[in-house]
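User: Hi! I'm a student and our assignment asks us to look at how structure tokens line up with a sequence. Could you show me two examples?

Assistant: Happy to help. In each example below, the sequence comes first and the structure tokens follow. Example one:
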Amino acid sequence: MLDVKFIRENLELVEKSAKEKGYKINIKEVLELDDKRKEELARVEELRRKRNEIAAKMKGGKPEQALIDEGKKVKDQLADLEKDLTVVEGRCKEALKAVPNIIFDDVPLGGEEDSVEVKSWGEKKKDGVDHLDYAVSRDWVDFERGAKVAGAKFYYLKNELALLENALIQFGLKKVLEKGFTFITVPDLVSSKVLEGTGFSPRTSDQSDEYFIEGEDLALIATAEIALTGYHMDEIIDEDDLPLRYAGLSACFRKEAGAAGKHTRGLFRVHQFNKLEMYVFCLPEKSKEMHEMILATEEEIWQELGIPYRVINIAAGDLGAPAAKKYDVEYWSPVDQCYRELTSCSNCTDFQARNLNIRVRRKDGSVEVLHTLNGTAVSLARTMVAVIENYATRDGKLKVPEVLKPYLNNKEEI
């Protein structure tokens, strides 16, 4: 959520950013609601002042009936106004939550096709093995029984593929620990406050991607980012303790597995998968630096795995509400002869932190909202696709990437 004061002072920028992101918002209505909120608050505070004055006059003796009557009248008026204020504050907050974060100056304008390649690495193979056919033929994955138990796009991992997933987790964890991240496991369920606080507001009401628990104020997380954002909710962190770097391992649950127009084959897009996520809380002036650090860590992971990739600066129209800037890392698919999304990392500036009241206390005693960033270390399902496509051999074996051998009994192939 943006600061309403910032919106007032940067009206044109906020409206332009929202339009470029594809969000239809009414800034005039947002500011009118905030004006009404301030008017209601002023009336409430005036009545509270009167109430306190009357209470002070009543001390030390028997008050006159007129003073008692006036006190009762003020009390009733205050109760009504406080109810009105609560309603207006709620409407104002909802309106503010619909306003997406502004974009940085170096974010490309346009839709998904307008995203800009920043760099690339690795030699692109000319042919590869289809990961699903390969894994099924080796009895490594079972989508049929997954569908029988939970529905389409759920699956069982078996044998060497399950071991490969574990090896990727261990490798990714070693890498993020070397970079100063603290390993943390997270709840797979969060409250609506935390879910909304991360800022994943859909552009339209029918785009919700979360699984909600009926009868409970809980939803399954789509990424550890959501639970990690809420970790310091309603806290003030000392400046000397920043940056805080966390690496969260979790299952991720998403409805979008069969989304139209998306590459959906096999493990590439599923309803449930495991992921190791990087998350940073930092000072506002350090967030751009932290963003580049997260990206560099992601690149090191794919370079050490030997997976060819490119880095994309995501265009405004393909950014979600929280991000001011986002990089995608796309791996080279020798099967499809194109790049496909593998991981991403986003700078959400103060957008999420303001939603969840996460602040920093400066050395001079002042308090302000800090910045948050997130990035995928290893998204296990897609990483297994990339490894199979780039390392499977025609004779039915899978060469083990050098960095994974210590976690697979030093085998050369599986």
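Example two works the same way, sequence first and then tokens:
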Amino acid sequence: MKKKIAVGVVLLVGALSTYFFMGSEADTEQPRSPASIPGNYEALKASEKQDILWDEVRATAHKSLPEYKKFGVMQLIAMGRQEIATKGSLHSDFAPKGWKKYLHRRGAIAKVKIVARDGQKYTGIFQGAENAFLRLSLTYKVTGSRPVAPGLALKVLRDGTYSANISALVSLNGQGKDHNFFQQSMSNIVPIGDGLGQSLVHKIFRKVSRYPEELVASDMAAITSQGEKVKDVVAPRQLFFIPAAGLKFSSDAHDVRDDFASIPEGTTVYQIHVAPEKYKDFDYGKYTPEDVASFVKESVHVADITTTSEFIASEFGDDGMFFRHQLRP
């Protein structure tokens, strides 16, 4: 019984850690951009920055897919030394020096664009963006005790300023042994859970965030893809990334990166939905899995994420590109 509880705690710490640092260990907040990156990188147009980053992705593409690394007690201890604030304060597209990733270690990344729906009211990149990246990955290696736990990270590049970033999960518990990565929707907010391990981890992370299971999307609405600050910001609180219809793969055990590689350019991968306004002040401390289903059902379709390249599994995509997490104040 004690062994099962210990395994559960490690699993749940891993899932929660996705929100803070994608399993990273940073010694400094200075980005480790490759030598080829120009000194005025942030001042460039979004399209120019996308070209630079994509060249790094392609140059380091894996010739064969590397194995997933284990996630155990030693990795958990190493993550405990992580400076969590770095993940929320560093505005860079490049990972910090000394950064070592333990969770979401392996995945695949593609160039994408955000296609806004007519008539939707949310500002900033929700009005559309031509230059973005979508990274898809599993939290850790699937084992007998660890489920399939999908996650995504979206980076939207903006002219002359830092990028907008958001990450999402299916849930803290994953989706069992179902290897269809697109089986369920993901969100920037997930339920706390009422298990012993979940309650313990929630209390630990409350020291750095009042609600550690929630990421904030306000920065995405505050600046347009052209780098212009929005005067009257209209930002959603909860996003749902709903897999596009027909995007289904086998539920049997296999490497999901092979599925990503088969997705052609021009594919709408996710629909971006927003929880209804009536839930904007909802107490997510009481959020349950049952609420998730009803919130998704009532959500409003505001944009689509469509690929503008193939998905590539690469060293730079795995270790070099940085996705900021805007924690709830």
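Here is something you could point out in your write-up. Residues 205 and 279 are 24 Å apart (CA to CA).
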